[in-house]
Amino acid sequence: MTDRILTPDALEAALRAIGAERYHNLHPFHRALHDGKLNKGQVQAWALNRYYYQASIPAKDASLLARLPTTELRREWRRRLEDHDGTQPGTGGVARWLKLTDGLGLDRAYVQSLDGLLPGTRFAVEAYVQFVRERSILEAIASSLTELFSPTIISERVAGMLGNYDFVTEETLAYFKPRLTQAPQDSAFALAYVREHARTAEQQKAVLDALKFKCNVLWSMLDALDYAYVVPARIPPGAFRPDTQA
User: Is residue 239 a part of any domain in this protein?
Assistant: First the structure.
């Protein structure tokens, strides 16, 4: 990128181009998951590892909430916390993800213990939480813009998994339905903020790099799953082994 300052429309187009090239719906593991090419143990491994990402989103958002300077911004990020943590026990996105792992036959206490995580999952998720905690507010908000592309992947995920796996039900996938409306709302707010506040070439480069970083986080999580669980499997010591949850 040069020192040329992009118009808000050109900046948005550049952000969308990053998603078109780098979003993890293009990853081979994602394609295999939704095309019905994985066995139950491999799907379990995906859900178990993804739980750590889902459970870390509220911590990520809380760290940003504490730094936000206006009531409007704090109100927006407080809503995101409620979406994921819920307002009552058993509600919210994290609780719904546990219903998914329950439905796949995983022991809930084992999932929540994080004992079976792949090292690559742990490192990727913690890098994302640290990024949001330490970078500028503008970069932290920009890193959430993968939500621009999530409705497409959610639709693929639900249709593909229901159509290809007899051990998956609509109840198992209940996490995803609210995200079809929450994610567009979240991304619209974040995109408007970035369009307004990324005014210099340096700021614009920072937000583009933040979105690339977030895409890399999601891609690397699937890299770890693909390496560990797709033939030839190379499951690292201590990580989840499907035969222990049969």
Answer: no
User: What one-letter code names the amino acid at 172?
Assistant: T
Residues 162-214 have pLDDT tens digits of 999 999 998 888 888 888 888 888 899 999 999 999 999 999 999 999 999 99
- Total domain count for the chain? 1
The domain that holds 218 is classified in CATH as 1.20.910.10
Instruction: Tell whether the torsion through CA atoms of 109, 115, 118 and 122 is positive or negative.
Output: positive
Residue 130 is encoded by which pair of tokens? 């640290």
CB-based burial label for 208 (10 Å; 0-12, 13-18, 19+): buried
182 belongs to a structural domain: yes
For residue 175, give the nearest of 188, 161, 186 by alpha carbon: 161
The DSSP call for residue 146 is: G
- Asked if pLDDT for residue 246 goes beyond 60, the answer is no
Sign of CA dihedral 128, 129, 135, 140: positive
Mean pLDDT of 27-34: 95
Domain span including residue 112? 15-229
C-alpha to C-alpha distance for 36 and 165, rounded to whole angstroms: 6
In terms of Cβ atoms closer than 10 Å to its own Cβ (0-12, 13-18, 19+), residue 246 is exposed
Q: Is residue 213 part of a domain?
A: yes
Above 50 in pLDDT, residue 17?
yes
Report pLDDT digits (tens) over 43-76.
999 999 999 999 999 999 999 999 999 999 999 9
Structure tokens belonging to residue 32: 């295999």
Instruction: For residues 160 and 158, give the distance between their C-alpha atoms in angstroms, rounded to a whole number.
Output: 6
